[in-house]
Amino acid sequence: MTELSKARRAAVTALLAAGLALALSPAARADTPAGAPEPVAAADLAQARGAVQDPAVLDRVGHFFARKGVPPTKQLTIGAADEARAASAAAPRLAGDTVPVYTLDAGFVAGTPGAPVAKAEFTASKVVAADGQTASVWTVRQGDAWRVVNIASGGDESDYAAKAADSGGGTAFREPQVNAWYVLRDGRVLPLDEEARRSVGAGGVPLAAYQRLVHQRYGDKLPGSAYDRAGEGGGYRLDAAAEPAPGGGSALPAVTAGAALGVTALVGAGAVWRRRRSTT
Asked: How far is CA 249 from CA 49, 119, 150, 238, 270, in A?
């Protein structure tokens, strides 16, 4: 378990300008269980995966592996030529499925009727290097195209989605404030990691009990609260006025000052990358 598995992507500034969206299929919406986020269309996941498979993206991931996650703005002890050779030798390849990543929803925290427990923020694809290093490549949709916006070491997003599927299905989601991963299944919120077990117990809790729990934790940190106005970590700064994406997609909210949400910067000229700090 990594330390950024305890405060993962904590306060890496803003995420998802309004207009970024994950398309949702109408059929999926009709069948969505109570409290569950609307599934992301398979066609969109395929397009997101295609963006990651671009040779230029895989080359960038190769350099991420060669640098052991050290950002390009910081110097290494090896030269550019050695880095290029290491990047080529990394031979990054995709492993497993591209998955939507769901994060605790502010409307659910507030107790808004019908609000899902979480909402999709981005998709993640796990990439593996020849030496066993792993990274999670994040994508969001901008207009009609999918864009790679972040590379992070490890593969929590894909791993917890797979764990949820293997343990009986449901929707994996994250409560970033305590770095807890859960699965919503049959009206219960069940733990997927140690942080979640400390939060809801080994047997989990009913969805209504979880809502009361997170409202108690974060209800005073929602948009418009004194906490939010004071800029204390950002609160749940969600933009309810985000416009739908072209083609009928459901827009993701704009997020600012993502300390409380634990999201990463997805705006700017190119993808950023983050190295998780190990506790060992």
From this structure: 18, 13, 22, 18, 24
Residues in the chain, pLDDT under 50: 1-23, 25-29, 233-271, 275-280
Quick one: tokens of 197? 């077990």
Domain ranges in the chain are 20-274
183: phi then psi, degrees, rounded to nearest 5: -130, 130
Contact 245, 123 (CB under 8 A): no
CA pair distance 71, 90, nearest whole angstrom: 17
Give pTM, 2 decimals: 0.74
- Dihedrals phi, psi of 104, to nearest 5 degrees: -40, 130
Residue corresponding to tokens 């933009």: 239
Kindly report, residue by residue over 158-199, the tens digit of the pLDDT: 999 999 999 999 999 999 889 999 999 999 999 999 999 999
Q: Are 115 and 145 in contact (CB under 8 A)?
A: no
Query: Rounded to 5 degrees, what angle do the CA atoms 13, 235, 189 make?
Result: 105
Are residues 91 and 8 in contact, defined by beta-carbon separation less than 8 angstroms? no
